[in-house]
Specification:
Largest interface: A-B, 88 and 88 residues
Number of strands of chain A: 11
Oligomer: homodimer
Helix content of chain A: 10-25%
Largest sheet of chain A: 10 strands, antiparallel
Number of helices of chain A: 5
Shape of chain A: globular
Chain lengths: 213, 213
């Protein structure tokens, strides 16, 4: 069970500690709002960072990939990993460039993943599917034994994690208050467009509900 | 000069090599379309992945942070690093979950960064500023010596990079063509909302032009 967020020497925020959040609900919310994580792993002293679809399942994150993927074999072998999720919420225009910045929510999870056992693999894949494509699992063609055998699912516990949230309007130096430049925030959000169909079937209600345009 | 993309053993795509792009223009285009990179670095065998604003400057990427940031001190010291940029372009609904996926463009740059010399720091910061806030540099309050002294700018050459592009409609197994589920793509894009002002000045033309809503 996750009892604290940002509470280890490796996850305590040294820079801008006022942006740190230490409640598990914010960690959950940031992870649940993202579709893609950036996964860090090390090989021969070189870090590699790869984008992966993911989902949170209680107090762990689930990632899936091919059994032929080096990243997933390394993850399943328990190499130290880092899973980082970032939601970009806006561009912050301060009156100085120095205080200009981005608004974002970001979560970082450190640790060693483990392969999800074969008996639990299909349920874990469903959790990922339900996150990325809510309501889709039951209408899609069922997963086959061969597909399951070719898929690795790994779980990384949320035991060691941190969350940063930068939000709100710019904070200028008091002496810059009169500088004659607009200051404010341009909000950014990942927005769905109109679905593009590859056949003549109408877009079903679950897809419309999952991605309201 | 960057002469090839995806051409080293560390950047050659082993999984789904058909997604690899090897032209420098695609590498440039992916980097130029993104505001945030995920930067990987290693400390005591543990990878850390952190989101950073960045910009491309010719055949290098520029990142800036506080001189008090451990990440930036490690980058400036030339530790092996990985800078990954991902643009999420859509959710791909195949008729099977197995072939469902995401559309995305992703670039990965490997190597060792170096600190930008003091004499070039302001010009490098301007490149980053121009990327994140086009047209803003000249109207913002000028950067001070103290702010420059407190900022580290590092450059990572594009010598060793790879680019992956996944786009288009889902590819189902031929035997799934008749499965009675909608198939297609829900496009996703990072979209600006209406600017929120922190004062009574009108939103200026450069901000409106940079973030058309």
């Amino acid at each position: 069970m996750v009892t604290s967020v940002g509470g280890t020497p490796r996850t305590r925020l040294r820079r801008l500690p006022e942006l740190a959040r230490t409640d598990i609900d914010t960690l959950y919310a940031v992870l649940d709002a993202a579709l893609v994580a950036h996964v860090g792993i090390v090989d021969a002293h070189q870090p590699f960072v790869l984008p992966c679809a993911f989902a949170r399942d209680g107090d762990r994150v689930l990632l899936h990939g091919s059994t032929g993927s080096r990243l997933f074999r390394w993850l399943a072998a328990g190499r130290p990993a880092c899973v980082t999720v970032t939601l970009l919420d806006g561009v912050v225009y301060a009156r100085s460039m120095f205080h200009s910045s981005m608004n974002y929510r970001s979560a970082m999870v450190l640790g060693r993943a483990a392969a999800v056992p074969d008996d639990d693999k299909e349920a874990a894949l469903r959790v990922i599917g339900d996150h990325l494509m809510p309501g889709r699992w039951d209408s899609a063609r069922p997963v086959t034994r061969k597909e399951l055998a070719g898929t690795l699912v790994v779980a990384l516990p949320l035991d060691e994690a941190s969350v940063k949230v930068s939000c709100g309007l710019p904070e200028d130096e008091p002496e810059d208050a009169g500088w004659p430049a607009w200051a404010g925030v341009v909000p950014l959000s990942l927005s769905p467009g109109a679905p593009v169909s590859d056949d003549v079937l109408p877009v079903p209600p679950d897809v419309v509900a999952a991605w309201p345009t």
